[in-house]
Design goal:
alpha/beta, 2 domains, 8-stranded mixed β-sheet
């Protein structure tokens, strides 16, 4: 009897075979993806202005036959890769696209050409990595069931955040993904490693704007003035009690003020003082109470000292919560792909991310991609003028996300 031959061999590949395929494809397309990253890095664009970036993304996807649509949330791009039985299940993958208003100080061939604008938060890596993941998944689309929705999001760095706008415009519909993955570069971790955390991971963020009003005049005649500088100083000191005396010891809370403008002179008391700061925490109910306390204390102190205080709190991104079940599975998959020694447990982080809007809608896992290389001096922090990455991390980034996707669709 003639042995049975499998015509559609890919349908019978083991998980080990698929891992090997993904790693081979990640290596094969690494130089292409690095070129894409450098093109994006050298042409950075600010929030909701990522027109050239969107065009580059669409062009790269078109090259590999991946259907896509531009103009979502103004400059966003959404693409779809269909596997076997494409309607069975959909997994979403997200990358952000925007740069920061920072002048780059790196001396590299792909240095920013747009003076005063720089990819200092790694969004060029996120975007290029997701394009690489898309190429891999397109090549392996006969190996999984369901579909993959690729979300290239504008404006993560600026309120209201592109994630919120894209959701409002229906990015989580037609088809509706059951879960979503996102990754972010992390200069504290060596390239080749990643970090994960289940549950609450990143803080909510709100911006506080106070205008303290008094009565200006000559500094040598304080009895004739209502000094807003003194009032504002008392307010800032008093508000720190919200953290030290009202926040639970097990609830990380940050209340910081980075702007204090009293436009007077050595002998001139101004009529008003403008203060601006941030508020971060990990509990939405406590977040509401902080706002109430800030407002009541600031107004009350100003009034008690004869002045006034206008309070405006601009609500930012919510707490980012990684779905426990999904993240535990993702950690297991990551260990399968990278090895246990290359998957690190993360701690709470008081920075914020608008990926949190996605995790409010569907189960999500937002993890960190190591980009550090001490031997090469690649150690600068995010949001600095010398931030850069070990580009070998792109191979890890695109390969791991492809593996997480395939495992989630099997």
């Amino acid at each position: 009897m003639t042995p049975k031959k499998y015509i559609f061999a890919p349908y019978h590949k083991t998980m080990k075979n698929i891992i090997e395929d993904i790693k081979q494809l990640s290596n094969k397309y690494l130089e292409d993806v690095i070129s894409i990253r450098r093109a994006i890095h050298s042409n950075p664009e600010l929030a909701f202005e990522e027109h050239k970036t969107a065009g580059l993304i669409a062009s790269a996807l078109n090259k590999y036959g991946i259907e896509n649509e531009k103009g979502i949330a103004k400059t966003g791009v959404v693409a779809l890769i269909k596997g076997k039985n494409p309607e069975k299940k959909t997994v979403a993958l997200r990358a952000d696209m925007d740069a920061l208003p920072i002048r780059e100080l790196n001396d590299v061939e792909y240095k920013s050409k747009n003076d005063g604008i720089m990819h200092a938060c790694g969004h060029d890596v996120h975007t290029a990595s997701l394009i690489g993941t898309a190429i891999i998944l397109q090549k392996l689309r006969t190996e999984f069931e369901g579909s993959v929705k690729l979300i290239f999001q504008p404006s993560e760095e600026k309120y209201p955040g592109g994630a919120k706008v894209m959701i409002e415009e229906g990015v989580l519909k037609k088809p509706s993904p059951e879960l979503i993955f996102g990754q972010h570069v992390y200069p504290d971790i060596e390239a080749g490693k990643i970090g994960m955390k289940s549950g609450k991971y990143m803080a909510s963020t709100d911006e506080i704007f106070l205008t303290v009003k008094g009565k200006g005049g000559h500094g040598a005649l304080p009895h004739k003035n209502i000094d807003p500088v003194i009032i504002a100083s008392h307010i800032i000191i008093a508000l720190q009690q919200i953290v030290s005396r009202n926040a639970r010891p097990d609830m990380p809370t940050v209340l910081s003020f980075g702007r204090f403008v009293a436009d007077g002179q050595t002998n001139v008391i101004p009529d008003k003082v403008e203060i601006a700061g941030i508020m971060r925490t990990f509990d939405e109910n406590w977040r509401k109470k902080i706002k109430e306390k800030v407002t009541k204390m600031a107004k009350g102190i100003a009034e008690s000292m004869g002045g006034e205080c206008d309070v405006f709190i601009d609500q930012g991104y919510p707490v980012l919560v990684n779905d426990d079940s999904l993240t535990q599975k993702a950690k297991k998959y990551a260990i399968e792909y990278l090895g246990e020694e290359n998957v690190i447990d993360l701690e709470l982080r008081t920075t914020a991310e608008d990926f949190a809007y996605f995790t409010q809608q569907i189960p999500g896992c937002f993890y960190r991609l190591g980009v550090r290389n001490e031997k090469r001096g690649i150690t600068s922090n995010l949001h600095t003028a010398t931030f850069d990455v070990d580009e070998k991390s792109l191979e890890t980034g695109m390969g791991l996300m492809a593996w997480l996707t395939v495992k989630s669709l099997l």
